[in-house]
Write a structure and sequence with these properties.
With 236 residues, the chain is an alpha/beta fold. A four-stranded parallel beta sheet has the order 3-2-1-8. A four-stranded parallel beta sheet has the order 4-5-6-7, covered by helices on one side. Helix 1 links the parallel strand 1 and strand 2. Helix 1 packs parallel to helix 9. It is globular and about 45 Å long. The N and C termini lie close together (6 Å). The mean pLDDT is 96.
């Protein structure tokens, strides 16, 4: 079965998120969807939802703390209120734009691992590294596993080449296959692909033998598009 995840990033409101989740849940039930579906709304849109067992609501980011004096952050006290047990860690936008270090990412990973969260751990390389070839790309990616327990039972990996996120340019199937096969040989965990995944290419990408699903940004923000993505991958 495939894992299909939508990352809202800084999009949608509390009201539109609730409507989106309700519509997707209804679609899952009426179409007997068996794949695991994940939605990562903004922190301000988290809530308690009565949804299908295979639809998970996660948080895009949280601080490694229960509560405390950390302005602008949320911790497990806030997540527990809504039963959130799924988190994205290591997304390239947090690494490259918000300058999260591997040390900070590791601290967050270990904290949420100890609490049994499902962790979608993101890795990816910038264009200048990709241009150096597969060997250098893999070296760069493996550095992002430094001090990360890759044997953790509730770990899902997501490979997102930085140069393909939000650019409209997806890696070729050959690029995806080469990187995914190399990682899968080293780490036996579900491995999603992310980076300009769309309604039109999601089935082809997720049909690659070493791809276990997709983590999708822009193309998943409209419920109709996300339903089509789910429909296109339901038999994988």
């Amino acid at each position: 079965m495939a894992i299909i995840a939508s990352n809202f990033k800084t999009n949608h409101t509390r009201k539109s998120t609730a409507a989106f989740i309700k519509e997707i849940d209804s679609f899952i039930k009426s179409n007997n969807i068996k794949n695991e579906i994940m939605i990562f709304p903004t922190a301000t849109s988290l809530d308690s939802f009565e949804i299908s067992e295979n639809l998970k609501i996660g948080v895009q980011n949280a601080y490694p703390v229960e509560k405390g004096s950390f302005t602008g952050e949320i911790g497990t006290q806030q997540l527990d209120e809504f039963g959130i047990k799924t988190i994205l860690i290591g997304h390239s936008e947090r690494r490259h734009i918000l300058k999260e270090t591997q040390k900070q990412i590791t601290e967050k990973y270990n904290f949420y691992k100890e609490l049994g969260y499902t962790i979608v751990y993101c890795i990816g390389e910038p264009l200048e590294v990709k241009k150096l070839g597969l060997e250098k790309t893999l070296e760069y990616l493996y550095e992002q596993f430094e001090n990360i327990d890759t044997n953790y039972e509730n770990l899902i990996l997501a490979y997102e080449p930085v140069w393909a996120i939000g650019t409209g340019v997806s890696a070729t199937n050959e690029d995806i296959k080469a990187v995914h096969e190399a990682i899968k040989k080293k780490i036996d965990k579900p491995l999603l692909y992310g980076g300009s995944v769309k309604v039109e290419n999601v089935k082809e990408i997720c049909s690659i033998s070493s791809v276990d699903g997709a983590l999708i940004g822009t193309a998943s923000w409209l419920a109709e598009d996300f339903k089509q993505i789910i429909e296109n991958t339901k038999d994988l």
